Amino acid sequence: MKIGIDKMSFFTSDLYLPMEDLAKARNEDPNKYLIGIGQSKQAVIRNSQDSVTLAANAALKIVDDNEKEKIDLILFGTESGVDNSKSGAIYLQSLLGINSSASGVELKQACFGLTAGIQMAMGHIALHPESRVLLVGSDIARYGIGTLGEKTQGGGAVAIIMSANPHLLEIGTQSAHLTKDIMDFWRPLNRSEALVDGKYSSAEFINFFKETFENYLEKTGEEIDKFTALIFHLPYTKMGLKALRSVIEDLDNDDLKESLLEHFEESRYLNREVGNLYTGSLYLSLLSLLHARNLKAGDQIGLFSYGSGAEGEFYSAKVVEGYEKYVTDEEIAFLDQRTSVSVAEYEQIYRSFMRPQTADYRTEFENDPAPFVLKGQQQQQRIYEKVN
Fold first, then answer.
1. CA distance 166 to 18
2. How does pLDDT run across 55-65, given as a tens digit for each residue?
3. What CATH number was assigned to the domain covering residues 3-168+328-386?
4. Which CATH number fits domain 170-325: 3.30.70.260, 3.40.47.10, 3.20.20.10, 1.10.630.10?
5. One fold for both 3-168+328-386 and 170-325?
6. Which active-site residues does the annotation give?
7. In CA terms, which of 63, 105, 162, 370 is 20 to 30 Å from 343?
8. What are the domain boundaries of the chain?
9. What EC number(s) does this enzyme carry (predicted)?
10. Range from 7-11, 66-70, 328-332 carrying the lowest mean pLDDT
11. What is the C-alpha separation between 45 and 64, in angstroms, rounded?
12. What is the full DSSP assignment across 46-98?
């Protein structure tokens, strides 16, 4: 039985910060941001959005009335959870009106959560072939104003529906996994911003990729030339390019090198426009690659997922015939309609976020054009609403 990705969608804020402006405000050479880390724009998330509303806004695009009845499992990957007990999947189920017999959980391991959900969904569908599983990776990447990590901030959500006989990708049954207890990135319970050892994390990212990729090839007996594209979790897009170069630099096949590099460029387009999505970054890269429409049925894509702390996994998927009909330009057209904000405006929005507190709070949701918004907090309960 073929199991894989049947539908995909994506959502982020209607506001963005040009990376060139941020570089100048921080007295940096703009090329350090535009070329050095490979980012053009950074999503600026309003204080009326959190991981739940971002997920709901992304999933709304693919969850119609028919899906609301058929979905029987919701897997919510995030490291920006809004409650230490209650799953974001429960909020998502309620906001979207998904049938009450569907079950759901929240998955956390830094940026690895959605990939863990992919593997869980594979097993669930194998046992229940009629199942349709909704998965989301939804996060807001926050490091702090003026910090070293500021230039790799961003946010948004990717939503996926997995099923048997999918229309986009058939996911392979083989994967290679690696787990190590390291402190390259973490966020203590008393903090809303992450802590990161940037150079250490970048080095471990490449080490994890090379080890899982080599293990995958050994397990399957395949060679690198079996892959049409290799795509990556992209905390910033230059990171994926470094990882790709680490396995192609010694190849004798120049045509393969060029092809893999061309497909990588296609895969990082959307990430350059948004910034770091944490759990959704790999899958935004996948969506970007599919939207380029330069693949054909049967092409094999290698996917590398990395979650600091750390877990890494390499697996593969094959392109389904006719996938082009299920990726539309309208899906990502909203990115061209976003509004640019100044550095001062970005800083004001950043500081306005509701922090963990007991007091009631009201967001500026009236200014938010998104369908689902966070209105604030009353008696320590978050208030969500569909307004558009």
1. 37
2. 999 999 999 99
3. 3.40.47.10
4. 3.40.47.10
5. yes
6. 79, 111, 233
7. 370
8. 3-168+328-386, 170-325
9. 2.3.3.10
10. 328-332
11. 26
12. -TT--HHHHHHHHHTTT--HHHHHHEEEEEEE-SS-S-SSS-HHHHHHHHHT-
pLDDT (tens digit per residue) in 211-223? 999 999 999 999 9
What are the helix and strand counts (H, E) for the chain?
12, 17
| 276 annotated ligand-binding residue | yes
| Neighbour order of strands in the sheet with 229-232 | 103-107, 71-77, 132-141, 154-164, 3-11, 169-179, 311-319, 300-307, 229-232
Q: Are 162 and 118 in contact (CB under 8 A)?
A: yes
Residue 24: count of CB within 10 angstroms of its CB: 14
Is residue 239 within a helix (H) or strand (E), and if so which, with residue range?
helix 237-248
Is the distance from CB of 373 to CB of 384 less than 8 angstroms? yes
Residues 140 and 152: beta-carbon distance below 8 Å: no
**Residue 96 class from Cβ within 10 Å (0-12 exposed, 13-18 middle, 19+ buried)?**
buried
**308-337: pLDDT as tens digits:** 999 999 999 999 999 999 998 888 999 999
Question: Which backbone phi and psi does 356 adopt, to 5 degrees?
Answer: -55, 120
23 preceded by a cis bond (ω within 30 of 0): no
143 marked ligand binding residue: yes
